[in-house]
């Protein structure tokens, strides 16, 4: 038990600030290292120096910018997953971004950036972008739109697995989102952030957000709304309501229309359409004679009774209840 605690302690200290030169990937600390720390009670700087010596001959590999999936199980004592990518550090197998800030954040700085997570109850780990700055941090970003560099006119398989650049525009993937929000004894809230073409901002928050699995076509459920952008998921009329709707793409039409496809009418993008609804944050940026035209929609955000034109948007989720840290 003492050896196990020492190993866990070393893993957490390995991500202490002030170790900019430290690059560790898939490295397990040796028993000699653990005994040295246990016997001598090394300081944080001493531990980092010891780890540098232990790992000096390790082979480093750079992560690609695309979303990647690692089929490996996070274990205790932990394997440290630490890399320096574009001057940002990224850590460690935890359940989600809230779990990271509640655990690693207790011992070390946890900056916004790319992290490896493995949701509870799965043996499947993958990379996410964690927003550790907004309202206390711990937000897992599931979608981000900025400038149209990433094509959101994708098929079902792409929306299922995820696509894009985690440091820029991306869609995390329905399967990954499902794994996160369906962890045992957890609830997640959803935060939608919007930016207009003239630089104004608005937001919509839902106090509960979860998806059903792929056999149910990733049906979406949202809870109570609050915010400044209006409740576009439910809209104004029954036929606008996208809550409890199935996900649709241009090659998998699951919306409420019997003849036409909302995805096809909305530039072949994927969303929880319902005849076709007032929201589609995956609408494309189209190149026109007048320049780039955004088709991102959240039609309950209005100004002077006109729908606001949106140039950027993001969706992020955070635990509202953590059973491990009451």
Automatic annotation (TrEMBL):
Main location group: secreted
GO molecular function, one term: protein-macromolecule adaptor activity
Occurrences of domain Fibrinogen C-terminal (ranges): 88-321
Location of this chain's protein in the cell: Secreted
Signal peptide extent: 1-21
GO cellular component, one term: fibrinogen complex
Domain of life: Eukaryota
InterPro entries: FIB_ANG-like, Fibrinogen-like_C, Fibrinogen_a/b/g_C_1, Fibrinogen_a/b/g_C_dom, Fibrinogen_CS
SUPFAM superfamilies, alphabetized: Fibrinogen C-terminal domain-like
UniProt entry keywords in alphabetical sequence: Disulfide bond, Glycoprotein, Secreted, Signal
Keyword Secreted included in the entry's annotation: yes
Any matching Pfam family: Fibrinogen_C
GO biological process terms held by the UniProt record: blood coagulation, common pathway; fibrinolysis; platelet aggregation; positive regulation of heterotypic cell-cell adhesion
Protein name, as recorded: Angiopoietin-related protein 5 isoform X4
């Amino acid at each position: 038990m003492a050896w196990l605690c020492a190993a866990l302690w070393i893993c957490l200290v390995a991500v202490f600030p002030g170790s900019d030169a430290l690059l560790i990937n898939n490295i397990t600390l040796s028993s000699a290292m653990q005994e040295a720390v246990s016997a001598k009670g090394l300081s944080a700087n001493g531990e980092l120096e010891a780890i540098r010596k232990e790992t000096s001959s390790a082979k480093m590999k750079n992560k690609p910018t695309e979303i990647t999936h690692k089929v490996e199980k996070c274990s205790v004592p932990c394997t440290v997953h630490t890399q320096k990518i574009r001057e940002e550090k990224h850590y460690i197998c935890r359940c989600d971004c809230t779990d990271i800030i509640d655990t690693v954040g207790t011992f070390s700085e946890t900056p916004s950036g790319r992290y490896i997570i493995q949701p509870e109850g799965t043996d499947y780990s993958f990379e996410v972008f964690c927003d550790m700055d907004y309202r206390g941090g711990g937000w897992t970003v599931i979608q981000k739109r900025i400038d149209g560099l990433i094509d959101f006119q994708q098929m079902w398989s792409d929306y299922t697995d995820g696509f894009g650049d985690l440091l820029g525009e991306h869609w995390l993937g329905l399967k990954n989102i499902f794994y996160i929000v369906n962890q045992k004894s957890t609830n997640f809230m959803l935060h939608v952030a919007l930016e207009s073409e003239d630089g104004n901002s608005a937001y919509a928050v839902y106090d509960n957000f979860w998806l059903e699995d792929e056999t149910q076509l990733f049906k979406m459920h949202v809870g109570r709304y609050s915010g400044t952008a209006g409740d576009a998921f439910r809209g104004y009329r029954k036929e606008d309501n996208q809550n409890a709707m199935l996900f649709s793409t241009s090659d998998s039409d699951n919306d409420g229309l019997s003849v036409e496809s909302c995805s096809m009418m909305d530039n072949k993008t994927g969303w929880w359409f319902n005849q076709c609804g007032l929201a589609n944050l995956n609408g494309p940026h189209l190149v026109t004679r007048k320049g780039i035209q955004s088709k991102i929609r959240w039609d309950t955000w209005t100004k002077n009774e006109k729908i606001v034109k949106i140039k950027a948007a993001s969706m992020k989720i955070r635990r509202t209840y953590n059973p491990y840290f009451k």
